[in-house]
Amino acid sequence: MMVVALAFLSSCNQFIQLVETTSVGKDEVNSNGVCENADIKVAYDFWSEDGVTYFSIYNKADKPMYIDWKRSVFIYNDWKNDYWIEKTTTQTFLVPSGTGKNLSYTPRVSTVWAERYTFIPPHTYVSVPMTYVIMNNGLQVSTETNANGKSTITYSQSLKIDKSLKTSIPKTTGKGNVKAYVKNYTNETSTNRFRNFLTYSFDEKFVTEKFIENDFYVSKVTEMTTKNFNGKFSKVNLKAKVGAKTAKAKVRVYESPYRNNTSFYNTIVQ
């Protein structure tokens, strides 16, 4: 897949941590980010800065399906995060009345309830609007100065601070290898574990409920240069028309060789 690399990925003083996840549990997610049973298919795509739990749902059955978001949650390191909170959205708008000089506007209020249930027709996909950031902790550089104002200590979650993690990985822009830092985790040692728990039914009143639960953990982190993360590139001419004017630009389009639906990345400033 070809993607246009963002500007922050091209800075010479920035490195990238490729974060890979592994699925465990009864409802296991395959290497393409898909979990399915006889009723339902859940497809994930975490690929973004810090990782985002985007997923879609497909109703495989010949009858309508219902998702109950109040009884569906995202669980991060055993902490529950709700997909649905009982609240309303209120919007005020003006309604015209009369004509000519007698024209006036009367305020009206519209109140909309958040959707607790999602109706999915047979053999239909639905895109889920609720997402959570997976891992945005500790991947930035911070600086602290002590009381006398003379000593500055810099902290970073860069893997380079542990020289034992230094290794070589295949170069993505040519032949040979490049330097990288790699750390592996098991389900027991990983500090980043998350679950997606969904409650669904083919009965609108949920007399009979069914569940699907997908468990993940961060299993591998590879720190490398942005050049190797981006991979090879080609130059593409783009045109954009704004009004009567046409703007032209030549941009780099990168191969993004590490892209995977169950992986994501973090930027490390060094």
Features:
270 residues, mainly beta, four-stranded antiparallel β-sheet, 1 helix
How would you sum up this structure in a few lines?
This protein has 270 residues and is mostly beta strands. The protein has one domain.
Tell me what you see in this structure:
By secondary structure, this protein is mainly β. It has one domain. It contains one helix and 20 strands. The protein has one helix at residues 226-230; strands at 3-4, 14-24, 34-36, 40-45, 54-59, 65-76, 79-82, 88-97, 104-113, 117-120, 124-127, 142-145, 152-155, 166-170, 177-184, 193-201, 210-225, 233-242, 245-254, 263-269. Strands 2, 6, 7, 10, 14, 15, 16, 17 and 20 form a nine-stranded antiparallel sheet that branches. Strands 3-4-5-11 form a four-stranded antiparallel sheet, with no helix packed on it. The protein starts with a strand and ends with a strand. The model is unreliable at 1-12 and 138-143 (pLDDT under 50).
Q: Mind sketching the topology for me?
A:
Elements lengths: L2 E2 L9 E11 L9 E3 L3 E6 L8 E6 L5 E12 L2 E4 L5 E10 L6 E10 L3 E4 L3 E4 L14 E4 L6 E4 L10 E5 L6 E8 L8 E9 L8 E16 H5 L2 E10 L2 E10 L8 E7 L1
Antiparallel strand pairs: 1-19, 2-17, 2-20, 3-4, 4-5, 5-11, 6-7, 6-10, 6-16, 8-9, 12-13, 14-15, 15-17, 16-17, 18-19
Q: Which term fits the overall shape?
A: extended
- Which regions have little confidence, pLDDT < 50, spanning 5+ residues? 1-12, 138-143
Overall structural domain count: 1
Overall helicity = under 10%
By helix and strand content, what is the structural category?
mainly beta
Q: Residue-averaged pLDDT, rounded?
A: 84
Q: Provide the succession of SSEs.
A: EEEEEEEEEEEEEEEEEHEEE
Q: In DSSP terms, counting alpha (H) and pi (I) runs of 4 or more, how many helices?
A: 1
